[in-house]
Every structure is written in structure tokens, then in C-alpha cells.
Amino acid sequence: MDLKQVPKLKHTDSNNFFLLAGPCAIEGEEMALRIAEKVVRITDDLKIPYIFKGSFKKANRSRIDSFTGIGDEKALKILEKVSKTFDVPTVTDIHEVSDAQKAAQYVDVLQIPAFLVRQTDLVVAAAQTGKVVNLKKGQFMSPEAMQHAVQKVKDSGSDKAWITDRGTMFGYQDMIVDFRGIPTMRQFAPTVLDVTHSLQQPNQSSGVTGGRPDMIETIARAGVVNHVDGLFIETHFDPANAKSDGANMLDLQHLEGLLTRLVTIRKTISSF
């Protein structure tokens, strides 16, 4: 699909990767606007097409007492405010069929979580909204299998599908990115590398997912070198106190330096 189909998406002629970035979950208006303001400035300076990411609710949690959200409508309205304030598109996850139409009123891209990407009714409901559908590759799925998820979107009358690789299960408590899958999935749809979730360490005995944020730049560089169309990076100004996925998020203060180096790599490989 053409990136120009995404409303408000800027710098689409820059030959850069596009970026989905923001906090794991919407914790409140002030934090969302604070993060968005900084990422918008950075991406405008670097001419990176940017989509603000934030989950309006978190349905897949290890424990019943884990943070799930501040209220669906409240969080969705914050996403809408981010979009209007900074004139950028937004993306959020959906978990149930009824979420599709509800979230589509507020955001530009609907994301299907990795654990749910084989749920036909959910994928079809997302596609039928007319929004871009970002299909996260199941941690248990081969790259080749993602062609069927993309085909469900197409069979629902839409050509607006992306695939996002977020790593593959490697034992019980680790993830690994198989970069051989990038060119395979790019045959089916524009392909994004979810850098931060690929560094999760799930299934910890504490019930709180761990992570390896020290490896974010290593994975991101490899993704750019291997021609991913987009990058997905969760970032927060205080990861240690984030209400969801803090263990693998990028500290916001490091984002500008990282993206500057990644853009340089992209320009270098584009000459080959």
C-alpha cells in the first residue's frame, strides 16, 4: 500500500523508514502529549514519517492486578487529542470485534496483537473499517504464514495491511528476531520491525515481563540494514515507572540519538 493513504502522515517522499512510536499504554493526557511533542519534533527534524502509538487498553496481561487502562473512551479521546494537537496519525491495539468500530472513530491505524492475529473475525472487523490494519506476527508463527493474515484483509475488501515482526519465542522466557523473515514478509505487505517487543523476556515467575532495552539499537540497526519499511519503538520519559512494558521500553531521552544514527544507516544502504 501507498503510505500516502495514511491521513496526516508527513515526509512520505523522504525515502526514510516510517516510525510507530509512543508509550505502551495511555496512562493520561499529560504524559501522552509530552511524549508526542518530543517525538514529533525529532521526526520532523529527521524527515521520518511518524505515527503516534498508544494502547487505549491492555487486554493481554500476565496477572489480574496488572494495569489495563484508564477507561476506553477516555484513552481514545486522548489519542484523538494527540492527533489534532500535533497533526499526526495514531495507532492503537484492538482485542475484540466490538473494538474495531469503536477505535476507528478516533485513530488511523488499527493494530492486531500478535496473540490474536489468527482471529479471523477480529482481522475482518478491522479491515472493514477502512483503516490501515497492522498485523503483528504471532510469536508462534512462521513469516510465510503471515500471507494468510494479509489475505484476510484483502478478502475483506481492503489493501491497507502491514505486517509487524515482534520476535519469535525462543524457549519459555526469551524472544529472537529471525531476519530471514523480513524479505519473506515484505513480499506480502509493507513490513515493520517491532524493536522493543522483540526484546521482551516473557513468562517471568514474578508475572511481570522482563526485557533487554540495552539491545534496542542492535536490533534496530539490523532491521534498517535489512530494508524494513518501518520501525516500531515503545518509548517513555520514565520507563522504570511506566504502567506497562517498562522493562523493554526505550528511555525517551535516547530516541533522538538512535533515530539520527538509523537515518544515516538508511541513507547509506539506499545508495546500494
TrEMBL record:
Task: Please give a single GO biological process term from the UniProt record.
Answer: lipopolysaccharide biosynthetic process
Biological pathway: Carbohydrate biosynthesis; 3-deoxy-D-manno-octulosonate biosynthesis; 3-deoxy-D-manno-octulosonate from D-ribulose 5-phosphate: step 2/3; Bacterial outer membrane biogenesis; lipopolysaccharide biosynthesis
What GO CC annotations are associated with the protein? cytoplasm
E.C. number(s) listed in UniProt? 2.5.1.55
> Recorded GO terms, molecular function?
3-deoxy-8-phosphooctulonate synthase activity
* Localization per Swiss-Prot or TrEMBL: Cytoplasm
Keywords from UniProt, A to Z, are: Cytoplasm, Transferase
* Claim: Transmembrane helix is one of the keywords in the record: no
Q: Catalytic activity annotated for this protein?
A: D-arabinose 5-phosphate + phosphoenolpyruvate + H2O = 3-deoxy-alpha-D-manno-2-octulosonate-8-phosphate + phosphate
Chief location? cytoplasm
Family indicated by similarity = Belongs to the KdsA family.
Name the UniProt record assigns to this protein: 3-deoxy-8-phosphooctulonate synthase
Please name the source species: Nonlabens tegetincola
